[in-house]
Amino acid sequence: MCGIIGVVQRRGEVASFLHQALKRLEYRGYDSVGVTTISNGQLHMKKDKGRIEEVHKKLNLDEIPGCIGIGHTRWATHGIPSMYNAHPHFDCKNEIAVVHNGVIDNFLELRKELKSKGHEFSSDTDTEVIPHMIEDYVSEGLTLDNAVTEVTRRIEGTYAIVAMTSRDDGKIVCTRDGNPLVIGRREGATYVSSDIPAFLPMTNDMILLLDGEVATLTAGGAEIRKLSDGSEVERETIKVSWTADQAQKGGFPHFMLKEIHEQPEAVRNTLRIRPEVIQEAAKFIHEARNVYFLAMGTSGHAAMAGRHMFASLAGVLPIFELASDFPDTVYNSLSKDDLVIAITQSGETTDTIMAVKHAKSFGVKVVAITNVIGSSITRMADHSIFTQAGPEIGVAATKTFMVQLTALAQLALALGELTGFVDNEMLEKKRQSLEKLPEIVSEVISRNEEKARRLAGLLYDKPSLLFLGRGVSQATAEEGALKLKEISYNHAEAYSAGQSKHGPIALVHDEYPVIFVVPRDETRWRIVGNIMEMKARGASIISVIAKDDEELKGFSNHWFTIPEGIEPEFSTIPYVIPLQLFSYYMARRKGFDPDKPRNLAKSVTVL
Ligand code: F6R
Q: How far is the CA of 93 from the centre of ligand 1 (A)?
């Protein structure tokens, strides 16, 4: 939901850094792009509608003078994608430039007020009120940081704001409430960005900026103050372990494919999370009255699979609620004895953050499972488990899903130990099966990639596909259907296979593709019945099955196979991989960019 970058350095031009940083942020939005720098006491600006490379071809983003600059890649909320609505936005005198991520709820009222004072607007965005308000405060004699502070007192909504003025070419001011911003530091240069990968090639030293704080960045460092009382904040520098290479395509045509191939490593690293961190989370669950999983999208599918793991291994059945609907579902039924487990790879999803805020207002404790250190959710949580996927750039979540499942599996085992629901011998068997995951995940990729590519060649023009699974495999089917919809735009629906004959079967006709997820678990014999029902109606059966499941091969038109060795509770981990690959190749076959699906952005920071 919009990517922001800012840099102030002692010497040297910032243009090509801004351009490259925006490319690393493009997954956050790609409707339009813009940069502004300061040189010789003047703002210089280039912006337009379109993807970064299209705009670069037209405007040459590498040529814009100055050693201080800000940039933005947009995911439109207010105002269509156009040159005028692209950020940065400016004041009337063209002295103040602002980039913003978030939504200003009261912008119409502010805009009316500013217009009545004579301000002229050149866009339809909510953002543009900010530079005009800063202009007024600066003309009253306030410094840029004080002007920005005053603006935050008037605006309602969520925001990450970065501003600079041609009257001071050594300083960038930034603030946030509800949208991410991190500061990067190295000798002679300071950076600010929506996400760490943007400045990774320059530095691994990061300083967190929290909601309700304003920072003044100069080439020599960052000065952070509280918005509420102006008091100075001491904040230590954190070293991030991610590497710049991880944020590059590394020879793969797309980030999504690279990230699918990184899954064995991501799982391996997540299996190394310190046991005390997992055990502490298990303790929270063990002591809770009701346990809620809150998540959206793919993270919600991890929650669905996690419920099965918890029920089967620990005798605990959490309630899964979509974070977006949680306040309207639970009303006031929460108590301080309840626990929320918020699953969010970015840690910045507004739906999830708002649901957690709702829960916290009742004194509910919060455990976060997230991939991003320092993200908003971790600052609200009583305890956090950090998954170890490294940066995920492809908009469609793949390796972050894998590590969420891996963390949930470890948590289910730790909880099982506390509840004693299954005996130790059984828990040990399950634990050993988890240890095999990295090798199995690797084998699943190599075994199925070519098949996925070929199948995409056969099915790419099918208008609709059905994904079915039972038990934990319903989560796998849901994730397979979501991946397909979001990057290949084929209509896809997932159901519990049990539910399929209660309605969805009416869709089925000759050669209608139905994808069944069928691990060797206790649901297998029932799902065979569902396959037969679909076959009888002429469906083309595609199955994801165990390597030597000859019987199901006999019932299927096409199949993907998964090596044995993974316990049924964890089957989503290997079984979803062929479906990720299938979606990827469907998108490619249809000529779409799998990394940048239309209308989507990597983290959804609006309600
Ligand atoms: C799908 C996808 C989204 C996210 C959802 C939640 O590929 O990426 O459905 O899973 O927006 O995002 P996080 O996990 O960051 O809260």
A: 40
pLDDT of residue 503: 86
- For residue 134, is pLDDT > 80? yes
Q: Whose CA is nearest to atom 4 of ligand 1?
A: 297
Together in a domain, 254 and 191: no
Determine, yes or no, domain membership for 513: yes
Same domain, residue pair 367 and 276: yes
Catalytic residue among 23, 46, 49, 602: 602
- The DSSP letter of residue 506 is G
Note the pLDDT tens digit of each residue in 184-193: 999 999 999 9
43-47, 503-507, 587-591 — which is least confidently predicted? 503-507
- Examine the residue annotation and report whether 2 is marked as an active-site residue of this protein: yes
Residue 187 has a CB neighbour count (10 Å cut-off) of 10
Domain boundary among 187, 220, 244: 244
Report the chain's mean pLDDT, rounded to a whole number: 94
pLDDT at position 114 is 98
Residues 6+ apart with CB under 8 A from 72: 2, 3, 4, 5, 22, 33, 34, 35, 86, 87, 88, 99, 100, 101
How far is it, in rounded angstroms, from Cα 246 to Cα 526? 43
Q: Which atom of ligand 1 is nearest to the CA of 300?
A: 10
Does 411 share its domain with 262?
A: yes
Which CATH number does the domain housing residue 223 bear? 3.60.20.10
**Residue of 179, 195, 341, 345 to mutate, ligand 1, most atoms within 8 A of C-beta:** 345
Beta carbon of 299 within 6 Å of any ligand 1 atom: yes
**Residue 14 and residue 155 in one domain:** yes
Which 3 state secondary structure label does DSSP give 544? Answer: strand
Q: What is the mean pLDDT of residues 6-32?
A: 92
pLDDT computed for residue 245 by the predictor:
76
CATH number, domain at 414?
A: 3.40.50.10490
More confident residue, 379 or 288: 288
